[in-house]
């Protein structure tokens, strides 16, 4: 792997040089005089910050952006999203995943935790574009007869196939939710997780209906149910976690489960507000995610940071809740560490995942506090370059192959068989 020398870049309010080699930050100093395969001159006009880690998304759902907006969750899923996805081919998924990667790179994200069909296609799209990804087979029995995960040959084939994937890939098993996956499938997942020590990714307590149905079916709440069947571990990534009791939070903390907070999706689907103060009091590890582009409708982690902070202040009527530094940590270092990545900060010895931001962008001027500006005023126009594993994914705002990706997506836009929901007056 070639080396990279970033010269005269702002880091912690000082102008320094940063030397990167073999995917790691090797040296940070006022002046570094050593040969490098690539040199980036910043002239004190750019700052280096950690890149973002998207804790939960459905990348290929970029193809469904704006397709079925303003609907309740279960009507949205049952009547629109799942029927549309039934027509998706691997080509649809590849085009949607590449579009998602393009959007995430433009907004400073270098990693995403994905839950979707045909994971090898999504993995290839991500790794071709130089991004880190955590994903794997998905179980969704309510959607298809017989989950892939219930078939021994399929799961063993995938786990063998994983050995040939990029070093940027982290394997996982995905269960859509407790209401859409059969108990026997969850048992199968448990046995695979024990054997292969994989990450486990699931939607959890996203709606009040999910909680009520779990109480009726299993006689306990969702967290208690997953705990009973052994699916809560330090490698469990639980998306949403809106409707939790203090008892459930204690269980999640004791089992070192990571919760993914997605304020934009929660608000858009009117599912409720994630209780940040209660999560902090319980000592829970919370990271940020965007959810899919059909329920957000974008994959911008900066927008997610701002919304998370402002919503928390509004909902709990406390201006000190979720300050800029904390929510920035959730989107960077906490997100990286949740997936075992030694990253998320700009320090020697850490993975070279970084963004270079344009300090002359009007949204970052006059520049009293860079992290605060990144949370409350910045947008993707502030990001000049994105680095993952020591190589540029975007350099001087240019991403290789961007036009081809956009042209390909146009070929696979789904035909809308549903009548338009908005009628002329």
Name of the CATH first level of the largest domain = Alpha Beta
Count of individual helical segments: 15
Distance between the termini: 61 Å
The overall strand count is 17
CATH topology of the largest domain: TIM Barrel
Shape: globular
Strand content: 15-25%
CATH superfamily of the largest domain: Metal-dependent hydrolases
Q: Architecture of the largest domain, according to CATH?
A: Alpha-Beta Barrel
Q: Which class best fits the helix and strand makeup? A: alpha/beta
Largest sheet entry: 9 strands, parallel
How many independent structural domains? 2
User: Averaged pLDDT, please?
Assistant: 92
Q: Approximately how much helix is present in the residues? A: 25-40%
- Report Rg: 21 Å
* pLDDT < 50 runs, ≥5 residues: 145-150, 419-425
Search tags:
nine-stranded parallel β-sheet, 2 domains, globular, alpha/beta, single chain, 17 strands, Urease, subunit C, domain 1, 35% helix, TIM Barrel
Protein described:
The protein is α/β, with parallel strands linked by helices and 425 residues long. It folds into two domains: 4-50 and 345-398, Roll (Urease, subunit C, domain 1); 52-338, TIM Barrel (Alpha-Beta Barrel). The chain has 15 helices and 17 strands. The strands form three sheets. Strands 6, 7, 8, 9, 10, 11, 12, 13 and 14 form a nine-stranded parallel β-sheet that branches. Strands 3-2-1-4 form a four-stranded mixed β-sheet, with no helix packed on it. The protein starts with a strand and ends in a 14-residue tail after the last helix.
Topology (elements, then pairings):
Layout: E1 4-11, E2 14-21, E3 24-29, E4 38-41, E5 46-50, E6 52-57, H1 73-85, H2 90-106, E7 109-114, H3 119-128, E8 132-135, E9 138-139, H4 152-161, E10 169-175, H5 183-196, E11 199-204, H6 208-218, H7 222-228, E12 236-240, H8 246-254, E13 258-261, H9 263-268, H10 276-282, E14 285-288, H11 301-315, H12 324-331, H13 333-338, E15 354-358, H14 370-376, E16 383-388, E17 391-394, H15 402-411
Parallel strand pairs: 1-4, 6-7, 7-8, 8-10, 9-10, 10-11, 11-12, 12-13, 13-14
Antiparallel strand pairs: 1-2, 2-3, 5-15, 15-16, 16-17
Helix pairs in contact: 2-3, 2-15, 11-12, 12-14
